Amino acid sequence: MNSPKNSMAAPIEPPIAEAPSTVFPILIALSFSHLLNDTMQSLIPSIYPMVKDSFQLSFSQIGLITLTFQASASILQPIVGFYTDKRPQPYALAVGMCFTLLGLVSLSLASSFNIILLSVGLVGVGSAIFHPEASRIARMASGGRHGMAQSLFQVGGNAGSSIGPLLAALILLPYGRFQVIWFSLVALLAIIILSKVGGWYQRNQHLNLVKKPSAGSDAVTPGLSKKTIIFSISILLVLIFSKYIYMASLSSYYTFYLIHKFGVSIQNSQLYLFAFLFSVAAGTFFGGPLGDKIGRKYVIWVSILGAAPFALALPYVNLFWTGVLSCIIGLILSSAFSAILVYAQELIPGKVGMMAGLFFGFAFGVAGIASAVLGNLADRTSIEYVFWVCSFLPLIGLITGFLPDIERRK
User: Fold this and answer.
1) Taking a C-beta distance cutoff of 8 angstroms, is the pair 220, 349 a contact?
2) What is the pLDDT of residues 139-161, one digit of tens each?
3) Is residue 78 predicted with pLDDT exceeding 70?
4) Which residues contact 12 (CB under 8 A, 6 or more apart)?
5) Distance from CA of residue 250 to its chain's centroid?
């Protein structure tokens, strides 16, 4: 949007250094740890039908559980990212997973609604530490393939999110909420893996130092005014807003929608949720590499706006097509996040952790607030009305056209 000769361009910090070639063992370890982390986190919405019945909760209280988890994660993530940009903490990932471990044990033993809120808050703290730091290490190990690295990292998390409902249907629903305690073993495994990753990080902290690009380098230096950069970040946050409110309606209330509208059993509704979340994982895998090849702006455009026709049709179709359309929506919509995150990191090089924390945190916060608001709306109207209102959100993807083109030129 701004001419390269703009004399008012704000100084751009040079990007952090990165491995000369892609360090796949570290990326795979991060992706697998993300899978374990998000498998445990996804148990929270998966047991909503169970705790709603046993504690006689309203939809508003269900939304409050999500809000507590997401708020504890969203508020802390930008703070963690900002702090570790200045003072790297190689073993922060393992420490964060300890909070998740405590939250799971507490959740399995919870005897009241307040204890449930405390438990999910601890899991949220673990998430707040995990995401910005893991995203930074993924970029360090990318070897310049930023979109691919973020997608590989993200696909682990989304795969874990899809596995959670399946495990809930097979283990938690038949045998009770106390079985959550067995997932503490998953947290212990993640702590061991992340300790190894922390060792690599500590040995390679020189990759976390800021380096100046050489003359003639094709490193991303947008040369945009400060006003344009702020405007672009704002657009990206609005896109995250539309994406994650819609995703919150599906991840938190999809099972209730299927049960209420089509009379699906609780266990079968978890299988539908697994199919939707698995499609989200698949879409995440393709989004980053596509952004590396064709440009992140185009991936963002197609991802969010491309889901609109299917989202608009969803409230009007039968059970079979509800399952099909929800998977198509998940596949298309989920490809945006990696592209958005890398685009933001290239807008403000040198602030990798802060940008990761900001966007992960904002995504978590939006999802949490949306769950609470949508739960209250469902109590006042109906769950079908909630899905109808949310079906218009992907149309916000039209504002992608206002983003400047900062892609590298061959």
Assistant:
1) yes
2) 888 887 777 888 788 778 877 87
3) yes
4) 221, 222, 223, 348, 349
5) 14
